[in-house]
Every structure is written in C-alpha cells, then in structure tokens.
Write a structure and sequence with these properties.
alpha/beta; Spore Coat Polysaccharide Biosynthesis Protein SpsA, Chain A; UDP N-Acetylglucosamine Acyltransferase, domain 1; 2 domains; 8 helices; elongated
Amino acid sequence: MELTAVILAAGEAKRMRSRQPKVLHPLCGRPLIAYALRTARAVADRTVVVIGPNAAAVRAAADAGVTFVEQRERLGTGHALEQARAACGDGPVVVLAGDMPLLSSETLERLVSHHRTTSAAATVLTAVVDRPQGYGRILRQGGRVKRIVEDRDATDDQKKITEINTSVYCFEARRLWKALAEVRPDNEQGEYYLTDVIGILAKAGGRIEAVVAGDPAEALGINDRKQLAAVAAILRRRILDRLMTDGVTIVDPASTYIEDTVTIGPDSVVYPQVVIEGVTTFGAECVVGSGSQISASRLGDRVHLRPYCVLTEATVEDGAQLGPFCHLRPLCHVGPGAKVGNFVEMKKSRIGRGSKVPHLSYVGDATVGEGVNIGAGTITCNYDGVAKHETRIGDHAFVGTNSSLVAPLTIGEGAYIGAGSTITKDVPPGALAVGRGHQVVKEGWAARKAKKHTGPED
C-alpha cells in the first residue's frame, strides 16, 4: 500500500521573534521546509504538508507534487494531523516535523521498514540524549512503549528519563484516525497532543514499536535562533565532510562556510575564511583563495580565485584566473583562460577567451572579445545619468592605461587606444585612437611660483 508522509509545518515563529513562518528560515542555503520535503520524498509515495493560514510563501517554497492542507486554528499537533486525513490514503502514514533538518532519509526508511515488518499499530522514532529537557519522554513498561509524556506535563521522576520522542512516527492508518478521534485537550496547554495517540493505541492492545536514532542530532528541532545556529554548525560540518570525502581539500573547516546547495569538483582546494552560497558549482582542480565569497555562480575546471574575490551570479570558464580583490557583480561571464586582476569590478559584462583586465578597472555593460588587453585604470563609462549603455571591444584590441571609454561605443578588432584617452566615438578595426590634451611644458615655472609666494628677501 502507498505510504503517505505528512509534514507538520503550521507552527508560528514566536520564539524566533519573526514575522516569517518558521519553516522558511534559511539554513545552509535552503529553507527549513526543504530538508523535510527532501527526506519525506525519499521514502514516501505521497507528501502532504500541513500549513497555517496566510502561508502562501510556504506553498511557493515547495516543489510541485505536494498536497497542502490548512490548519486554520492552531490547536496542537494532533489537531494538525487530523486536517490531513482526507489527503492521506489507506496505507501507512509517516509523520515528521518541518523543523528537523538533520533527520536523514536512511533513518526514516529504517523506521518505516521496522513498522511494516512488525505490523505495529505505531512505531516511534526515539533518541537517547544527555539533556532531555524540553522533549517528550518515552514511558516504557516491560521494555514496551506505553505512552509519551510531554516535558511540561512530566513528573520529576519522568523528567529523568533520557529517551525522548523525536516527533517522528509511522502509523497504521485505520488505527491512527480512530485513536486520534479519542484525543482530548486535557493538558496544561489545552491542546490536542499527537503524542496521546500512542497511549490510546497501547491501551487498546495495539503493538507500539520504537526505533532509536543512531545519531541523537537527528532529533534536533528548531524553535529559536540559537537552536538554528547550533543546527547550522552541525550541518555545515556534514557538508564539509561530504566534500572532503569526495576529494576536495578544505584547509580550515572551522572557518569555511559552504552551503548545502554547492557542488565542488575533485582536487579543488578551498582556503580559510571562504563563504560559498546559493546554487554554486565548481569544476575540478579549482583553487578558492582566502576570504573569497561566491554566490549563485558557475565556475569551470582549473579556475583560480586569488584571495578576497567576490562573485555573484557569475560564470567563469575553464582556466580563468581572478583576483585578488576583484568583484564580479551579477551576469558577468569570464571566458576560458581569461584574467581579471586585483581591484577590478565587473558588472553585466563578458570577457572573451584569453583576454586580460589586470588591475584597477571598471568594466560595466561591456562585451570584450578574445585576446584583448585592458590597461590599468580603464573605465567603461556606461551611465549617462538616465540610462545604461554598452561598450563593445573587438578581438585583440589594446586599451591603454587610464582610458575612459564613453558608451555607447564600439572599438574594432585589433584597434589601439592610447593611454590616458577619453574615447567618445567608435574606433574602426586596426586604428589607433588618442583622445587627450597636448602636453605643455613651462620651464622654470616652479621657481617663479615659489618666489611669488615668498616675496622679496629681507
């Protein structure tokens, strides 16, 4: 029978002190809900997400193929699951929280497999932890799970129990819905607890099984920003471990921040204090220098980023070298073997194969051909105060140092621009363009100036 996964994601972000739904808070490049969805889809035939009212953003964050149901009143976890009943089939139902990003699909598969093998009415995922405060405790009798007591409702002796409820379950559907109808809000919160279903099923003679998570960290939920930071630290380490296992050298994992959406090819080296975010891909044998920050970019093989490069939504092809201290703003494209040097800023521009922008330049709204040399201090003057304009530089052109290229402008193939020029008109292929004032030399001028200001001798 088909397995349905129900993700409870209607909780507010009160302890996060945020207007944004809790499951949309970002964690290592993805919203929290994305981790729950990924885990659920790995094991389930159908995925149902329970959301609160006014949760359009949560709907938008999920991919196609998800069924949403709304919990209009937040009356507890049992009430939330009840809202999903019509969307679930007759097969087993696995329930998980939307704020447990460390839960693995392997653990969830083990839970479901054990549930099916034992023909249990319910199977609970538990964990044994050193500090169980805040979690529901697993109450056993003769080794069998009999019920779950919430932390706020537990006695002092029950609070000493270190086996906790992770809020992940697998239920036999028919028995689940019958037991859920018997749940009453007889607790401090006045809510319908899903945990009470376990006790009801056990009393009715149902078989209650438990699977203990191999890694207690999988049970960590997120209710506030401190917990978000703690889980992020664990997840970042897992990401780095995976990359190192796949052949990437991380020089200093403690100071390296790489999001879950990043892929890096083998034999690449990442130096300390690097941040790589968004859907970013690196090819093989790349080097990422210290202090660099790369976001939502695509880099080919053997790309070398010297220290302190900043790239956003950029494409860098094989063998290119960048930096140090260069800035690629969105929609920049650096061709194979090209060089973008220190203190160069690019914006919405393409640099052709083997071209060089070595240092101290701004290239905006420009298309630069192959084999072009752009001298230090060159500026593409792309903004006239009203609109942006393009500069086009043909293959093998040479732009001298300290030139201002006033767009719209086309510099032809093989053309030369004299150093210190301000170019306002198109330059034909193979031509030399010089646009600067004539040098004037006035000999003895400095001495005359000094005498004028000091006056006659005493």
